Every structure is written in C-alpha cells, then in structure tokens.
Amino acid sequence: MEKQLILICLILSFVIYSGVIYTSGTTVNEPTSLLSEKAKRGKLLFHQHNCIACHQIYGLGGYMGPDLTNAISRTKHGAVVAEAFLKSGTQKMPNFHLQKEEIDALVAFLSYLDRTSNYPVTNYEITYLGTVEAKNN
Ligand code: HEC
User: Fold this and answer.
1) How close is the Cα of 116 to the center of ligand 1, in Å?
2) Which residue lies with its CA nearest to atom 8 of ligand 1?
3) Do the Cβ atoms of 103 and 87 come closer than 8 Å?
4) Torsion angle in degrees (nearest 10) through CA of 74, 94, 106, 41
5) What was the pLDDT predicted at 137?
6) How far is CA 121 from CA 28, 62, 63, 68, in A?
7) Using CA positions, which residue lies closest to atom 24 of ligand 1?
8) pLDDT by residue (tens digit) across 43-74?
9) 55 HSE (CA, 13 A, CB side)
10) Whose CA is nearest to atom 29 of ligand 1?
C-alpha cells in the first residue's frame, strides 16, 4: 500500500512537472550589450592596428605601452589624453593617421573596456573556495 502511494505521488509529480515545462514557453530575454555600434567599430580598429602588440587589456598583451583597461578613468581627462595620443602619436607610439571618426570609435571602445573591469585589482579578498573576489576598487 505504501509503495503504491509513493508510486502514485511520483507519477503525479512527473505529470505536473512535465505540464509546467511544456507550457512555460521558450522565450529568452536577449542580453543587452554594452558594446555600442561605435565601440564595435573601435574594437575592430583596435585589432586592425594591432594595439595589443604594445598595450595590455586586463594585464595581457605587449609591455611597451601602458595597460589600457582603465585608460579612460585612470585620470580625470583620460578620454582627452587618449584622443591626443591617437591623433598625434608620441616618440614611442606610432601615429596611425586616423580619421576623427576612427579616433572617436577607439575612445568609445576604450570607454566600454573601462566599464568592464578594474585592472590591476588592488582591493581583493580570497574567498573560502580559494578564488579571488574583487572588492570595489
Ligand atoms: C609601437 C607600440 C604601440 C602601439 C602599436 C600602440 N601604442 Fe599606444 N602607447 C604606446 C606607448 C609607449 C605609450 C605611452 C606613451 C609614451 O611613452 O610615449 C602609449 C600610450 C597610449 C595611450 C595613453 C594611455 C595612458 O593612459 O596614458 C593610449 C590611450 C593608447 N596608447 C592607445 C593606443 C591604441 C588605441 C592603439 C592602437 C590603435 C595603440 N595605442 C597602439 C605604444 C604603442
């Protein structure tokens, strides 16, 4: 008698669960990207000009120039500085002879990058799982 009761409960749960699964619909909310069309163009230019040969993102890349993860927010006038560097180059950074629109796109990409992370992580904690958790930098 007990076994039959358990079996009936299991069958009932299965039927209810299947009913819920098959009627709950399959629409998924599209994730909204932080990457605007302009920033996407900047990302492409970043690859085309091989900026990563000299610069790092999240600490990875070439080491001739500075890390660009937070180039925009590191200083008060980050965007203006980036624009100036991209416009004229320096003794060490080549002048890529970019159009104004290309410079704007690259700055938009760097601004996007800035919002994705903080690098280097200076304020962190090692969790009980042994992983590292960034605190608000
Ligand atoms: C040949 C190496 C080289 C390449 C390629 C290069 N850069 Fe640089 N960049 C540098 C160096 C070196 C500096 C530091 C300024 C200096 O010492 O003259 C710099 C500085 C900068 C700065 C200012 C950063 C800051 O916080 O002061 C930005 C922004 C920047 N580069 C963006 C770019 C972008 C975007 C590209 C690709 C289009 C690029 N760089 C390609 C070498 C390079």
Assistant:
1) 20
2) 93
3) yes
4) -150
5) 53
6) 34, 19, 18, 14
7) 71
8) 999 999 999 999 999 999 999 999 999 999 99
9) 20
10) 82
